[in-house]
């Protein structure tokens, strides 16, 4: 048994494809309200992707509890995972909501500010090309004053119609470069 509520599923394993097809293709008077379908784990993942976002550029000082507390304001979170790649300077998160409406805003809103840090947000259902389009046009500012944070540049990014901003952090001190 997996999921809960409307997403609850009973997964039954068969020894042969013929036995599975016989179960799926026939009616079952003892279970009149149940509908049997061939199980496709990729389809279940795709359904979850329609309700999930990927959050990137998360500094290590932002902990999972803080991140989830922030993202709860967009809807009811059913699952989440915070992770980082080996030798990464930042973390990433996958957050799954119970409803696709919770992530609709992130089609146009590419980032949020959490603890004065700009976190990039991408719907997980996006194709590789859609994700690449969000990294297509980038500008670099140089000679910024010391210790400038992402939030300090928010008025400028708003005036420039920028979608997100990122100030790299020093690996040694974890202060803005």
From TrEMBL:
It comes from the Eukaryota. GO terms for molecular function: nucleic acid binding. Gene3D superfamilies: 3.30.70.330. This is RRM domain-containing protein. It comes from Rhizophagus irregularis.
């Amino acid at each position: 048994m997996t999921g809960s509520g409307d997403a609850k599923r009973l997964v039954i394993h068969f020894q042969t494809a013929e036995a599975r097809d016989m179960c799926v293709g026939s009616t079952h008077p003892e279970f009149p309200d149940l509908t049997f379908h061939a199980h496709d784990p990729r389809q279940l993942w795709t359904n979850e992707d329609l309700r999930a976002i990927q959050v990137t550029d998360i500094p290590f000082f932002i902990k999972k509890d803080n991140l989830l507390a922030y993202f709860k304001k967009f809807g009811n979170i059913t699952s989440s995972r915070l992770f980082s790649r080996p030798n990464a300077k930042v973390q990433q998160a996958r957050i799954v909501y119970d409803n696709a409406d919770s992530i609709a805003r992130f089609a146009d809103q590419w980032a949020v500010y959490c603890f004065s840090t700009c976190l990039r947000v991408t719907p997980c259902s996006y194709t590789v090309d859609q994700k690449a389009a969000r990294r297509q046009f980038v500008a670099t500012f140089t000679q910024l004053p010391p210790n400038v944070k992402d939030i300090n540049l928010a008025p400028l990014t708003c005036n420039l119609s920028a979608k997100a901003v990122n100030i790299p952090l020093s690996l040694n001190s974890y202060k803005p470069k």
